[in-house]
């Protein structure tokens, strides 16, 4: 009988979209309460890839990524997405979100994002949550797929994920 091989633990991260710094700070406090200490934060960048979030978040939107020290089981991603949705609801005002949280995980081979939306390239996990491989590690760098969000294709974000990948190797030892 063959033995079952379970995947290694992964580095949890969240992409965060927001318009005001105090919304970001509140989100970080909530995320750390649930997921523990932050191992790395990306620089603040202006996010202007779509008008989709402007009605909720505001005219000028910023993006940051946070990566957590405590590694997660990959199968926990659906529950993590549900937890981040509760944080978004908690930090909402007047029926509008003040932050958008996009959790995912990083392994040496890939970046996986959680989503509530189904599409041809997404796999159903459970409880209304889907997952997609957004970036794959090929020939020494993360590379996008055909359905990868445009911002994740940006070199500045790929560099952030490359640094996080190096950090993951340190956290595993």
Notes on the structure:
The chain has 173 residues and is an alpha+beta fold. The chain contains five helices and nine strands. Strands 1, 2, 3, 4, 5, 6, 7, 8 and 9 form a nine-stranded antiparallel sheet that branches. The two termini are 31 Å apart.
User: Beta-sheet strand percentage?
Assistant: 25-35%
Low-confidence stretches: none
Shape: globular
The chain-level mean pLDDT equals 94
Termini separation? 31 Å
SS class: alpha+beta
Secondary-structure element order, as H and E?
Answer: EHEEHEHEEEEEHH
Percent of residues in helices comes to 25-40%
Radius of gyration, whole Å: 16 Å
User: Total number of β-strand segments?
Assistant: 9
Number of discrete helical segments = 5
What composes the largest sheet? Answer: 9 strands, antiparallel
For the structure shown, list the relevant keywords:
about 170 residues, alpha+beta, nine-stranded antiparallel β-sheet, 5 helices, about 35% strand
Task: Spell out the blueprint of helices and strands.
Elements (H helix, E strand, L loop, with lengths): L9 E9 L2 H15 L2 E4 L3 E3 L6 H4 L3 E12 L4 H14 L8 E8 L3 E6 L7 E4 L2 E10 L2 E4 L5 H4 L1 H18 L1
Antiparallel strand pairs: 1-4, 1-5, 2-4, 3-4, 5-6, 6-8, 7-8, 8-9
Compact description:
This protein is an alpha+beta fold and about 170 residues long. About 30% of the residues lie in helices and about 35% in strands. Strands 1, 2, 3, 4, 5, 6, 7, 8 and 9 form a nine-stranded antiparallel sheet that branches.
